Structure formats: structure tokens, C-alpha cells
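quick one before i forget lol
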Amino acid sequence: MRYTVYLSGEIHTDWRNKIKKAINQNGLPIDVLTPNTDHDSSDGCATEILGPEEKNFWTDHKSAKMNTMRHMTAIKRADIVIVRFGDKYRQWNAAFDAGFAIANGKSLIVEHAPELTHPLKEIDASAHAVAENTEQVIETLKYLCLDY
């Protein structure tokens, strides 16, 4: 079986690269989809493509719509959605992606530090696996790819 996995959430660490590297090193049958993780490019995509706005609200609004189109399409294509919640910032977009994945019946793996268990309890309750670190996510993916 081949999986398509969408890596959502926190963009300030190299967790995505760790997962991609493990997929390649272990020869796992997984295709990876990601959001735009370049913060400036993500925030400015719409004005770069469609032109500037006078108010920041409309700049953010246009870029959010473009990015949401990318995220929703990727989540719909994915078999498994992995959402990592970092401890540095509140990630409303990660929570949105988790909810969208759940609403679309996707298998969900959530990763976050134990300190975030209480604020993320509803998301955790809907997830198929809750990991405390990226290594546990990688081990989960390896397990899912075993051929018995």
C-alpha cells in the first residue's frame, strides 16, 4: 500500500525534514505533501500574484484564501494528515487543519509536547495517534507501512 501524507502545523523547526529523511532512508511507500513553509512567501503570495492592497486586512485575507486552497486540496488528497503543534506559538492554522482533516474523515496523527495535552484534548480525542515527538511519528509511519 502507498500512502499520501500531509505535514501540517508548526514551521519553525525541521520536523518535516526529519520525517522526509526517515521516509527515504527506510524506503517507506509514502508521498509527502506540505504547505508553503516560507513565512514571507506564504503571507505575501496573493499580493505578489494579484497585486497590492491598501489595507493589511485585505492583504492577509487574499493570502489566507490562497493558502487555504492549497491546504484543503492537500488534505483532501492525503490518506494521513500529521499536525505538529509547537510550543513556541499558538497555531490556529494547525488546529484548523486538524479539524478539517477530522471533518473529511482523514486519519490523523497529532504531535505535541505533553504540556499541550489539556488545550488540545478535543483534537487529541479525534486523532488516531498522539505523539510527543517526531521520532514517535516516524515510528508510527514505519509501523503503518509494514507488510505482514
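fyi The radius of gyration is 16 Å.
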